[in-house]
Amino acid sequence: MSELKELREINVFGMGSGNPQDVPERIWDLIRSCGALMGDPRLTGHLPPLEWQLRLPLPCGEELIPALEGAPKPLGVLVSGDTGFFSIARRIGASFPGRVRLFPGVSSLQIMASRIGESWANVPVVSLHGRPLEGAEGAIRQTIWDKDRCAVLFGEGGGVRDQLSQLSKLLKEGVRGWLGWDLGSSKEQLFSGSLEELANSPYTGRLCIGWFEAPRGGFFGEKEWDVRRRPLEDLELERKDRIPMTKFPVRCFVSSLLEPLFGSNVLEVGSGTGALTCHLGRLTGPGRIFSIERDLEALDLASRNAERLCPVGSVRFIHGEAPVRGVELEGPFQRVVVGGHGGNLKEIIRWSAGLLSPGGRIVIPCLLLSSFQQAMEELEALGFKTGFLRVFPGEGRRLGGEWMVQGGNPVDIVWGDVV
Fold this sequence. Notes:
By secondary structure, the protein is an alpha/beta fold. It folds into three domains: about 1-105, Cobalt-precorrin-4 Transmethylase, domain 1, CATH 3.40.1010; about 110-215, 2-Layer Sandwich (Methyltransferase, Cobalt-precorrin-4 Transmethylase, Domain 2); about 225-415, 3-Layer(aba) Sandwich (Rossmann fold). The protein has 15 helices and 19 strands. It has helices spanning about 1-5, 25-35, 40-45, 65-70, 90-95, 110-115, 135-145, 160-170, 195-200, 225-230, 250-260, 275-280, 295-310, 345-355, 370-380, and strands spanning about 10-15, 35-40, 55, 75-80, 100-105, 125, 150-155, 175-180, 190-195, 210-215, 265-270, 290-295, 315-320, 335-340, 355-365, 385-390, 395-400, 400-405, 410-415. Strand 2, helix 3 (about 40-45) and strand 3 (about 55) form a beta-alpha-beta unit. The chain is elongated and about 90 Å long. The mean pLDDT is about 90. InterPro entries: 4pyrrol_Mease, 4pyrrol_Methylase_sf, CbiE, Cbl_synth_MTase_CbiT, Cobalamin_biosynth_MTase, rRNA_Ade_Mease_Trfase_CS, SAM-dependent_MTases_sf. One of its GO terms (molecular function) is rRNA (adenine-N6,N6-)-dimethyltransferase activity. Pathway: Cofactor biosynthesis; adenosylcobalamin biosynthesis. Pfam families: PCMT (PF01135), TP_methylase (PF00590).
């Protein structure tokens, strides 16, 4: 009877690695007291059949919640690891408020930390279990940006090798760490080395977790002093005569109108030299710039500048002419900036407006009066709250022992806010 008093309608049990020796006998007693039991056969297989207990498969996706509702109560659900740690427990609790009790187990993160003699407290964790790395890049950047270490939950088999190889391209060179397979089981193995070395480690198994340490400059080079502390000067950029470049004063005005940028996803139409691209890439932090450029020579130039002047992975360049079709842009975007438009400004504004998130802003630097007029008219027609600045930029230059002001082209900087 005491066991039944502890149970609720739905009870989620963390089974750690699935090794019966890791689960206290009291928890086994509670599991045996449930009228029905759901879980992976790898976990339920440790329990002999019980005549009073119905064994049910644990469905995934949209079938999960109806299956839980329709099962006899009290219901037990077996999950690997800790019930609050990248498992379905969170979804179950949110779907059945007040009807669920969690019984935590030992997570793979805790076992990994004990194996390498580290503390698992405050370690950021990314889950790639059953999830391709493509499409998860934004979550990875947000989670481990400016951190000294991280853990990654992988899946099983040879797919882990592919994910490690992809991570080595996503992160700055020099990341090292450990890879643990089937921790807490009789098949446990632990490897150490660089991401490339770990990708070639000889073992595969059921479950895998990685523990990685950032190189001196951070996982993305975000701790390099020049990325954080000073603005990007024109002379630092590689240039070509016919490829346009947004000059330093205009970059400063545009970026200020796009603030706050840290953590934002920004869509840029027209990379050009990549001057504004790199300027924004140094301000968005764990966010990302998606920059579209139709000219291959300009795209190559902008890519080289970004590779040298921005944190790793800050910019994704896309070859094409806006509005681009059939390309996954990983929106919505908090900010859009339209530079080059090839005479197609109104259509680009309409297209990019549909990619903006609530509260988002679009900024359009205009050299031509016709572009200014089109931008204002289209933004107002779409219901944006609009404004503009007319800027006459000038930079100080040395002339012998004196200073002079060298003027640049006047620019109308138009913006519109989603309301």
